[in-house]
């Protein structure tokens, strides 16, 4: 790598989208951000006239957003479109200033406990994990393959959503099922959103003026997907997502915790297929299943209008959150801070207020006026005297991936 190579391109390849950011690690700036969505859609009228869309914002070059619509057939075409947009601003992939590409990879199993430079063997290992992450790893792999084909000489790094959780003790990670069956099929709690839990728990310690090793934090990552983690002295000791991201909190479209026998019942009594049950629990449950909306803004608006279904969905969401705060307080023994993050956690003051309401005995209190403040900065929303700090800490998974990537290629 050349001494002047200080840029990192972060790629988050989903099944039908690629999100990306180009960061300059020396200057601490973001040079471009963008999103290619609806990849593979582009055959109107069969698709209702919808087609792929590419939104690109060259922050370094004045920040004027560019939006293009038109069929983008696959991830290879998407990455080529990204490369072309970056090149238009003199930030192309061939630039000697590009130090590395950091890929978000959802499932790293037990093998990947840290960011890893990608070679053929690593790629094969990520492929071996497809059976435990069929909805996520294939798209990540396609993104990696395409990016390697575009810049075969450039270091490419995989940053795993599961890595931060690999410190969980066996008693938290194992399900209480037959050990041989579990091991044969690699069934255990892996946890996800790890880059966010890592970043937010560290930032929370910083906000308290402490080293991460000195504090115990409960992180509540509440986006469309949602997960909680218990972080003791900088190490994850438990997290709510499991073998897949379906377990745990109530999410936008996922049920979270459910009696596993519900799935047998749906199969035997309702005659549903495995794929139908999978779709029901992952895509048609959670807030959307309960009230038809998964956007917390819309749910709050409906509650204000007296909508009972929206109210019940909100109450179920909050009840589950409280259960995890309680459970992780017990797991940690002593809690220094509870940190709210991601779309809902950062923006929805009523969720934060309701989640800690009635928990004063546990040292958790929210100050109404601090909670009402809107800001993009990490901040405390608990009064000075409260035993446990309650914080809002905006997450930044791209920055975390870029930092881990840059640190590894400079090591
Ligand atoms: P993901 O990355 O999982 O797609 P985000 O972390 O971006 O999700 O969170 C998206 C969710 O955040 C939306 O579905 C919505 O419920 C919630 N959200 C975003 N902005 C607000 C807001 N101003 N008030 C309340 N909720 C919000």
Determine and state the CATH class of the largest domain: Alpha Beta
Total separate domains: 2
Tell me the overall shape. Answer: globular
Number of strands: 14
Main β-sheet, in a few words? 8 strands, mixed
SSE order in H/E notation?
Answer: EEEEEHEEHHEHHHEEEHHHHHEHHHEEH
Q: Helix segment count?
A: 15
Indicate the mean pLDDT.
95
Low-pLDDT stretches: none
**Second CATH tier, the architecture of the largest domain:** 2-Layer Sandwich
* Percentage beta strand: 15-25%
Q: Radius of gyration from the CA trace? A: 22 Å
Euclidean distance between termini CA atoms: 11 Å
Which small compounds were modeled alongside the protein? Answer: adenosine-5'-diphosphate
Keywords: ATP-binding, Cytoplasm, Kinase, Magnesium, Metal-binding, Nucleotide-binding, Transferase
Catalytic activity: acetate + ATP = acetyl phosphate + ADP
InterPro entries: Ac/propionate_kinase (IPR004372), Aliphatic_acid_kin_short-chain (IPR000890), Aliphatic_acid_kinase_CS (IPR023865), ATPase_NBD (IPR043129)
Function: Catalyzes the formation of acetyl phosphate from acetate and ATP. Can also catalyze the reverse reaction.
Question: How does this model look, in words?
Answer:
With 411 residues, the protein is α/β, with parallel strands linked by helices. The protein contains 15 helices and 14 strands. The strands form two sheets. The chain has an eight-stranded mixed sheet with strand order 5-4-3-2-1-6-8-7, with helices on both faces. It has a six-stranded mixed sheet with strand order 11-10-9-12-14-13, sandwiched between helices. A hairpin with an 8-residue loop joins strand 4 and strand 5. The radius of gyration is 22 Å and the shape is globular. Residues 223-225, 252, 294-297, 342-344, 347-348 line the site of adenosine-5'-diphosphate.
């Amino acid at each position: 790598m050349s001494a002047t190579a200080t840029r990192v391109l972060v790629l988050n390849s989903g099944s039908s989208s690629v999100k990306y950011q180009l960061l300059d690690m020396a200057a601490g700036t973001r040079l471009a951000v963008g999103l290619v969505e609806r990849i593979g859609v582009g055959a109107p009228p069969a698709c209702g006239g919808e087609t792929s869309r590419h939104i690109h914002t060259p922050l370094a070059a004045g920040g004027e957003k560019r939006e293009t619509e038109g069929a983008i057939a696959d991830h290879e075409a998407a990455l080529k479109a990204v490369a072309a947009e970056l090149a238009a601003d003199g930030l192309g992939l061939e630039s000697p200033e590009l130090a590395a590409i950091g890929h978000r990879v959802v499932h790293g199993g037990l093998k990947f406990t840290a960011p890893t430079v990608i070679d053929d063997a690593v790629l094969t290992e990520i492929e071996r994990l497809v059976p435990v992450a069929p909805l996520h790893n294939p798209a990540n792999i396609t993104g990696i393959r395409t990016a390697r084909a575009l810049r075969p000489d450039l270091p490419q790094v995989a940053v795993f959503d599961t890595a931060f959780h690999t410190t969980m003790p066996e008693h938290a990670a194992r399900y209480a099922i037959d050990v041989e069956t579990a091991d044969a099929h690699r069934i255990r709690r892996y946890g996800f959103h790890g880059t966010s839990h890592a970043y937010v728990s560290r930032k929370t310690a910083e906000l308290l003026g402490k080293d991460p090793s000195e504090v115990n934090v409960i992180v509540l990552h509440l986006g469309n997907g949602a997960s909680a983690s218990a972080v003791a002295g900088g190490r994850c000791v438990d997290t709510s997502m499991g073998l897949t991201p379906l377990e745990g909190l109530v999410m936008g479209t996922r049920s979270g915790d459910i009696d596993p026998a519900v799935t047998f019942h749906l199969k035997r009594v309702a005659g549903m297929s495995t794929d139908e049950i999978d779709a029901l629990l992952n895509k048609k449950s959670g807030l959307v299943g309960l009230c038809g909306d998964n956007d917390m803004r819309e749910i709050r608006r409906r509650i204000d209008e007296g909508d009972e279904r929206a109210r019940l969905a909100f109450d179920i969401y909050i009840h589950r959150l409280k259960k995890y705060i309680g459970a992780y307080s017990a797991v940690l023994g002593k809690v220094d801070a509870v940190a709210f993050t991601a779309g809902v956690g950062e923006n929805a003051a009523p969720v934060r207020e309701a989640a800690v309401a009635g928990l004063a005995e546990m040292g958790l209190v929210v100050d109404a006026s601090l909670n009402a403040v809107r800001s993009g900065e990490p901040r405390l929303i608990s009064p000075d005297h409260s035993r446990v700090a309650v914080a809002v800490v905006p997450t930044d998974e791209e920055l975390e991936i870029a930092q881990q990537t840059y640190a590894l290629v400079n090591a």
